[in-house]
Every structure is written in C-alpha cells, then in structure tokens.
Amino acid sequence: QVQLVESGGGLVQAGGSLRLSCAASEGTFTFSRAAMGWFRQAPGKEREFVATINWNYSTYYADSVKGRFTISRDNAKNTVYLQMSSLEPEDTAVYYCAAAGIATANRGPYKYWGQGTQVTVSS
Fold first, then answer.
1. pLDDT per residue over 20-66, tens digit each?
2. 3-state secondary structure string, the chain?
C-alpha cells in the first residue's frame, strides 16, 4: 500500500521560509517514475495546485508561487520537497503531496495523497 507522509509544516512570520518534505513508501507505484505534486487547501476554499515535478525533473508552478517556491525530489530517498520562501499570509493552508503518472496541475490524475501538513503564515 502506498503511503505519502508530509512533514515540515508550522508557524512562520511573513517573509520567512519553510521546507516541506513528503516521504513515499513504494507499493503499487515506483517513486522514480512518478510525477509528484504539491497542493494546498485554505479554510473555506478549494484544494489548489501549487507545484509538480515529473520523473525527468521538469517542474511546473502555479503563478501565485512562481519565483518563491521550489519543488525538488530525491529518488534515492523516495522524497519530494517544497522549499517555500518569501511566505505571505495568503500561503496559509494545509499542504498535501500527491503522486500521479503524469505531471499536471489537475487533481484528477493524482492517485495517491498524503494526509497534509499545516502551514500558517502570520502577518
């Protein structure tokens, strides 16, 4: 059974940085061949795309985080990261990692999801 476990969330002041991690246990998918994505959901809002990284390390970001967030992966550790800098109160949300066969901003193809980690940015 595939498990994705996020960590690294917390409380940070505006302008600060955090690094989220998502560790995957391989079951029915091979991490190195998977596209990994980060999504977030703020209270009362829909879950939205943040960033994705393909098996070949190509990346794609939401406009709202471009230039501030960086997604990366370490296949030897079955882990994907989200480095977040210049954080804003609007970045406050539960952040989820997910795995899919293709790198996309759409939620549909992501078959496996983590439980989420809370990020709170104070003004």
1. 999 998 776 799 999 999 999 999 999 999 999 999 999 999 999 99
2. CCEEEEECCEEEECCCCEEEEEEEECCCCCHHHCEEEEEEECCCCCCEEEEEECCCCCEEECCCCCCCEEEEEEHHHCEEEEEECCCCHHHCEEEEEEEECCCCCCCCCEEEECCCEEEEEEC
Contacts of 58 (CB under 8 A, 6+ apart): 103
Structure confidence by residue, pLDDT tens digits, 102-116? 999 999 999 999 999
* Cα-to-chain-centroid distance, residue 70: 10
Dihedral sign, CA of 101, 106, 108, 112? positive
Tokens encoding 72: 């990366």
